[in-house]
């Protein structure tokens, strides 16, 4: 599977609706236009109606009278975030998308105790990468939400990633908890957590996947590197999901794949009552489209 086939898969899902918070953003509206043209979903655009219409008129005129796109005025980004979250909460929409609104504002709405999208689980960032010369998508988690997750949080981050991968057809994904080495070292917390996650998986505490670690990045994705180290594992050399030990590692790996490896990416926030497309303003419209496709496929499951 690649990201284009993920887009095609999203177009085949049953009726989906995406609520966009503060939709007055050119790249967001371009992604909405591409998705609407492909009949991936319907969209409710919350935000400054006049600004949204002006951007559509200038950059995406094709969605001006599109039946799949509706605009609902909101007086401020905070109000747009509230209305979009409530639309998901009240089952008017299946997924949430961040527009021209600070991440802190939309997350505050998502975590609202009265009308937010809390489930009691950890929220985590799951990115699906299409990397040149790799045959399958590689998932990286968590590169954006949890700073230094403990063992319990890492277990939930894995579960979020496994559910996301399963939603697009990756059955029993192989999970590699990354560390600097592939042996357990009491002085390196990442190796202790990796070993514990492996044991939890073997005992059925984490289901739906195969976990083996600690593994260094080369051993997780390269058969040759794993063989050279004499590592025999169901995961080594063929990991579907790379679990990073902290946000610095995740952020560097994420951006390295994009800028050095020229990878394409789609990403969602998982763990809430519905998937959340929380892209950066620097992300292209194409990347936002892939993220939408991942969210729509996740929501359908």
UniProtKB/TrEMBL annotation:
Q: What is its EC number?
A: 2.3.1.19
Question: Which UniProt keywords are given for this protein, alphabetically ordered?
Answer: Acyltransferase, Transferase
Q: Does the keyword Acetylation apply?
A: no
Q: One MF term from GO for this chain?
A: phosphate butyryltransferase activity
Phosphate acetyl/butaryl transferase domain ranges (all copies)? 69-295
Q: Which SUPFAM superfamilies match?
A: Isocitrate/Isopropylmalate dehydrogenase-like
Domain of life per record: Bacteria
| Pfam families cross-referenced by the UniProt entry | PTA_PTB (PF01515)
User: Does Cell cycle appear among the keywords?
Assistant: no
User: What family is reported?
Assistant: Belongs to the phosphate acetyltransferase and butyryltransferase family.
Q: List, alphabetically, the NCBIfam families matched.
A: P_butyryltrans (TIGR02706), PRK07742.1 (NF005837), PRK08190.1 (NF006045)
What is the name of the protein in this document?
Phosphate butyryltransferase
């Amino acid at each position: 599977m690649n990201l284009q086939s993920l887009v095609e898969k999203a177009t085949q899902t049953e009726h989906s609706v995406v609520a966009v918070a503060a939709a007055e953003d050119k790249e967001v509206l371009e992604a909405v236009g591409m998705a609407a043209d492909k009949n991936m979903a319907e969209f409710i655009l919350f935000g400054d109606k006049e600004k949204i219409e002006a951007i559509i008129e200038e950059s995406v005129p094709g969605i001006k009278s599109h039946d799949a796109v509706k605009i609902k005025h909101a007086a401020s980004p905070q109000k747009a975030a509230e209305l979009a979250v409530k639309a998901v909460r009240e089952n008017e929409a299946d997924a949430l998308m961040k527009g021209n609104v600070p991440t802190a504002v939309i997350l505050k709405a998502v975590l609202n105790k009265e009308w937010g999208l809390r489930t009691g689980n950890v929220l985590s960032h799951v990115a699906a990468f299409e990397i040149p010369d790799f045959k399958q998508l590689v998932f990286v988690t968590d590169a954006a939400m949890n700073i230094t997750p403990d063992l319990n949080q890492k277990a939930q981050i894995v579960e979020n990633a496994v559910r996301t991968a399963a939603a697009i057809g990756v059955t029993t994904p192989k999970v590699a908890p990354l560390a600097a080495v592939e042996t357990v070292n009491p002085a390196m917390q990442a190796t202790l957590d990796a070993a514990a996650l492996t044991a939890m998986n073997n005992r059925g505490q984490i289901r739906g996947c195969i976990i083996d670690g600690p593994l260094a990045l080369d051993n997780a994705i390269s058969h040759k590197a794993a063989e050279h180290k004499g590592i025999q594992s169901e995961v080594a050399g063929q990991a579907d999901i790379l679990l990073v030990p902290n946000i610095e590692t995740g952020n560097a790996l994420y951006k390295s794949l994009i800028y050095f490896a020229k990878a394409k990416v789609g990403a969602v926030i998982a763990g809430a009552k519905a998937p959340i497309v929380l892209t950066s303003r620097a992300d292209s419209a194409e990347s936002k489209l892939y993220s939408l496709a991942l969210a729509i496929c996740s929501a359908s499951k």
